[in-house]
Amino acid sequence: VQMVLIPHQLGGPNRKTPFDKLIGALSIIFILSAWFVGPLSIIIVLLLLINGWYTTAAILVVILGYPFLFPFKGSDSFCKFFLLGANWFDKGVTLWLEDKFISTLKDNKPLIVCMHPHGIFCFGFTMNGAIRFKANKPESYLHKELHPYFTADRVHRMSGIQAPILFKTPLVRPVLNLAGCCTPAAKGPMLELFAQGCDFGILPGGIEELLLHEYKKERVYIVNRAGFIKYALCHGYRVVIGYSFGESDLYHSVTTGSSIRLWLSRYGITLPIFYGKWWFPLLPEDNIPVNTVFGAQFDLPKIPNPTNEEVEHYHKIYMKQLKGLFEEHKSRFGYGKRQLEFL
Question: Structure pTM?
Fold first, then answer.
């Protein structure tokens, strides 16, 4: 007997006009372009200086540096624009909640929502994560069953963990700030979220899971990634696990040289090689639905100073729950023959 799932879909069949798909494509291109133009802008400034274009270089530095000196505030309008990207997907972006997940929200215990796989641009994590809440329009972006449990204050404190290097990258930093739900994946900021009892999402596999991505392979980097469990134990959080079916099929990736790229990632250099649509590689495949399931969950006891054995014990529970979530729902979404790889 399959678990009862409650869906909420964006895009796909919900598109209202023929232009919605185009708007979705433009939203994705605008957001993702920052990840490429941002790092290149530093090189552009250096080239301008080398060639004596000092005034142009100075103007560009001011434009790029402004968000660092005067950080943008979170914008619900930006979140709504971000979510328009769901219109690119012909079969939509859908958040599925197991009914037992909703029933446990009554006690208002803080949540750490752990999502897999990272994929190339983690559409499941973004479009089915905190940005839905930060859009401040629950009637359009959230299951009605969630409305009573997420007050304005709870949503205001909600966040998501992102790679620290992104906050140091021109153009990417303002995008993260405008989303209003992004925190660097560093010990200090994470402990602050825990201490304040904030709900937040995390991609435990991080950059490694991104670089190990392979088209149509379900891979998660988790075997040696247990730090988040340790911190969650220190504060007695509820761990919620989400899996995005379809994420691994949105982009083709080049796996040759992945070991070198993994080594470079230790020094903050991330170089994934991929493509989506052949005529515009930044765009993902549009005929693949993104289905994110939230369900597997367990409460952690509050242990201020957990031992390595205690961390390992709950880390094993996490991996077992993740495996169970995948196996429970893979056939429902057309991935019955897929096997989940733990790396």
Answer: 0.93
